[in-house]
Amino acid sequence: AHSARVTFTGHGVKALPASQEEALLRVAQEALHNALRHSGADHVDVTLDRRDGGAVLRVTDDGSGFDPQAVRRAGRHLGLVSMRDRASGAGGTLTVESAPGKGTTIEMEVPGG
Prior knowledge:
Elements: E1 5-11, H1 18-38, E2 43-51, E3 54-61, H2 68-74, H3 80-89, E4 93-98, E5 104-110
Parallel strand pairs: 1-2
Antiparallel strand pairs: 2-3, 3-5, 4-5
Helix pairs in contact: 1-3
């Protein structure tokens, strides 16, 4: 259905509390969905790395990008609100970096237990 090449890399992530694992999975799904459906990306890279006993998920695409402030002002959230809520509910944080023509990076970090 999509022509983008999707890669996944994981580095040393140990089991996390179930609530964090589920939040990471759901954010990964939403970020992938957005990248494949909206960005026109040729490549989407998903990485999951260990960080200070916790984990950091990064979904990066080389697609069309967007202006996060304009999306917020227009009331179109592209799932960003639900991703932020999931990250927060798991004790983590979500950052979104994007600009028109520059692709998008969604990063979610959860702390170690």
